[in-house]
Amino acid sequence: MTATPTIDVHAHLLLPEIEETVAGHPGHEEARALDARRNGPAALAVNGPMVAARLPRLTDVHVRLAAMDATGVDIQLVSPSPNHYHYWADPQLADAVSQLANEGTAAHCAKAPDRLYGLGLVPLQHPDLAAPLLDHALEQGLRGVEISSHAGDVELSDPRLAPFWARAERTGALIFLHPFGCTLDARLDQWYLSNTVGQPTENAVALSHLIFSGVLDRHPGLKLLAAHGGGYLPTHIGRSDHAWRTRPDARACAHEPSSYLRRLYFDSLVHDPYVLRELIRVAGADRVLLGSDFPFDMGTDDPLGALRAAGLPDHDFHAVRGGNAAALLNLARGGTPR
Q1: What is the value of pTM for the model shown?
Q2: Which of 18, 164, 241, 330 gives 130 a disulfide partner, CB atoms 3.0 to 4.6 angstroms apart?
């Protein structure tokens, strides 16, 4: 392992015990039907075999480590697969899902503690449970939690989430924003638009809620990492700035929206070297971290190759490759926790 390890901050884990726990509960079948409508039959026909082929990498630590070695990745930040959110669940079931996710992720990472760090889950649909279950995740030794772009009628700007944001800021927990599902619903049910258009749209909407609502003004120390390069927002932030300058109803945050991009973190998974360069230009080379979406088909099997394709200066390349993540995760040289 090099002095500065190569760190992939976007890698997933499947926890079958969560799906066994939610099966048969009221709301489960309705949630599955909504997911089917959003994705469409063609996407569902592909998704099943795709996940089945990747199941060993999603569950077996030894297979995961071998795959990391093959791609030159020293450390992964592992988060539960977003299909485990189950934001439809009632408070008792939601508490159980989050505890299973936190404990299961911690157990998986404990099998290779020098190479795997983890994130848990919290039930955003029950804001009063979010802060206590963030504490539960941290108590398991996890570095924070993964959240979606919204949970039913709970947007990330919802005042009821204020205790959660405050707890995350106070503890230094990392919040990984990873959408699952898009509210454009059946408009995106062909050609896998549910993912290719839906995910970056949800990222942009969720980040805009955090910016314009003042959440980032009230919690300047919040550590928030957006998957998929933050979606459409970083490359189209000029339109938000223009609205902020010209419309009183949009001037809700203290500063121009673009200025908040340098308070956030983004993974590098944008599938285009020119978009990656633009993301680094607007957010800063110290705010972008290597991400692969391991091991799903919408990720990359060669995250370092994708990073090299951007043609960054050496200092920026190594910062994105691992230096930024090492600092964010509070790792010493070589990957040891400080």
Answers
A1: 0.97
A2: 164
